[in-house]
Amino acid sequence: MTALVVAEHDNASLKGSTLNTVTAAIQCGGEVHILVAGHQAAAAAEAASKIAGVAKVLVADAAQFADGLAENVAEQVLALAGTYSHILAPATAYGKNILPRVAAKLDVGQISEITKVDAPDTFERPIYAGNAIATVQSADAVKVITVRGTGFDAAAQGGNAAIENVTAVADSGKSAFVSRELATSDRPELTAAKIIVSGGRGMGSSDNFKILEPLADKLGAAMGASRAAVDAGFVPNDWQVGQTGKIVAPQLYIAVGISGAIQHLAGMKDSKTIVAINKDPEAPIFSVADYGIVGDLFDIVPQLVAELG
Amino acid sequence: MKILVPVKRVVDYNVKVRVKSDGTGVDIANVKMSMNPFDEIAVEEAMRLKEAGKASEVVAVSCGVAQCQETLRTALAIGADRAVLVETDAELQPLAVAKLLKAVADKEQPQLIILGKQAIDDDCNQTGQMLAALLGWPQATFASKVVLEDGKATVTREVDGGLETVALTLPAIVTTDLRLNEPRYVTLPNIMKAKKKPLDVVKPADLGVDVTARLKTLKVAEPPKRSAGVKVPDVATLVAKLKNEAKVI
């Protein structure tokens, strides 16, 4: 058995999601290889070779992989699919975009967002916004899997894998990257942060979200939001935590003015400690919060900042 | 130019589902069913493109049990011109659905297929991408904006760090994300009109597709429950507990 992990990277470095995916690959049993499909991606390939438990890094370096176009990366995976028993990618926008194309062309089912490996052919995954966990078994010759990062620890460093260049497949010619608008922030990335301060509809406006900033600063936290806050235009889309947004499991999640709809809980209920601040004592968020404070967030948040010293 | 819009009948998003005590699945007997919210957005986008003169016909398609006709009537009420039901009682997984949709697309010859990015029941997020691969078409997933011009679709996508824009040659696949549009309310006159619009029923065998499920569900369980927390009276108590009890700060 050998597993191929499709690395998520920006050519200069690996994304953290790749490390969690490698852990899942290792748990599937057998050797683990990593594919880095990129452009001028030597640094990312080098980083991949240092991951403990990885036997080989395959590098497909060409302009048509510069921006992770699904049509091209999927074709490259298919060119290498050969004798792999498992093909895995992070369940991030990147991996989710690419991997089903691979599964379809291999004529196999895909197991999306696994949270646990029970056996080389048996996996757990959340359904119905995480209100149920399904254990599924695949009889397909190749298991094509996307991995939920919060389900697995990041693989350790200390590896020394061989790096091998592979022939790049041609550009499909049917899609082209146009532009990108990425948020830049000094705060940690939402899916990797140990502490998250998250605001909901109760914040009231995008200006009001600023009152959470000193709190996030004091805690070195990332900032997130509920779908309601994003839809109301208070904060950008990539702040959304929830069933159809980002799935997070930090050490501490502070939900401010968030009612706790099922779809939001789906994104954060695996957090180690949850704090809820809400003026409605019946808000569903309190049913998952370890510590809840009922009150006006506009009083409580500044008090909390002051108390943290 | 024809747009094909696949729609799925799912448990309504407001329903809090319960796991059956025998662990075989989720209890959906007598539960309210609706069109998958992302698919509503897909139908709405197709309608806007038609209303802007970019498309001449919108065809809705659904795969599943006979009651999917209700979901298709909703699509027709939103404004689709015609509907197709691929009727089967079999458990349909994304690969099978993608194959059925490919067969329908081969017949209908659309230039654009718009799907919801994921169904809120299985949360798979696969069908659109699989269909694109089977057809050999380019794809733009998690779309928040679609512009059709000169045989190309320029699509802005929601990605983890922000937004990304790609240009696809038609025919192409787009999957919708939440912020693509806000679906219109269906009016009573349109619901009445929808009853008269054509709705054809075919079977998977007619399309030559084997829909056998690939993944076997061994069991369905409740997620680990969090034990009940406490309400604290003030911020000082909260900070003390976070430091000393939870040890997270």
What is the SS-derived class of chain A? alpha/beta
Shape label of chain A: elongated
Output the helix-strand order of chain A: EHEHEHEHEEEEEEEEHEHEHEEH
Largest sheet of chain B, if any?
9 strands, mixed
Largest interface: A-B, 89 and 80 residues
Give the distance, in angstroms, between the N- and C-terminal Cα atoms of chain A: 54 Å
Strand order within the widest beta sheet of chain A: 5-9-4-1-2-3-10
Sum this structure up briefly.
The complex is a heterodimer of chains A (309) and B (249). Chain A is an alpha/beta fold and 309 residues long. Chain A has helices at residues 16-27, 42-49, 70-81, 93-105, 213-219, 227-231, 262-268, 297-307, and strands at 2-6, 31-38, 56-61, 86-90, 110-114, 116-119, 122-127, 132-138, 143-147, 162-165, 175-182, 195-199, 222-225, 252-256, 273-278, 291-294.
Describe the structure.
- The complex is a heterodimer of chains A (309) and B (249).
- With 309 residues, chain A is α/β, with parallel strands linked by helices.
- Chain A is built from eight helices and 16 strands.
- In chain A, helix 3 (70-81) packs across helix 4.
- The longest helix of chain A has 13 residues, at 93-105.
- With 249 residues, chain B is α/β, with parallel strands linked by helices.
- In chain B, helix 2 packs across helix 5.
- Chain B has a nine-stranded mixed sheet, sandwiched between helices. In chain B, strands 2-5 form a two-stranded antiparallel sheet. A two-stranded antiparallel sheet of chain B has the order 3-4.
- In chain B, strand 10 and strand 11 (162-169) form a beta hairpin.
- Chain B has helices spanning 37-51, 68-78, 94-108, 127-135, 188-194, 235-244, and strands at 2-6, 9-11, 18-19, 26-27, 33-35, 57-64, 82-87, 112-116, 139-149, 152-159, 162-169, 172-176, 199-202, 215-221, 230-231.
- Chain B is built from six helices and 15 strands.
- Strand 11 (175-182) of chain A pairs antiparallel with strand 11 (162-169) of chain B, so a sheet runs across the interface.
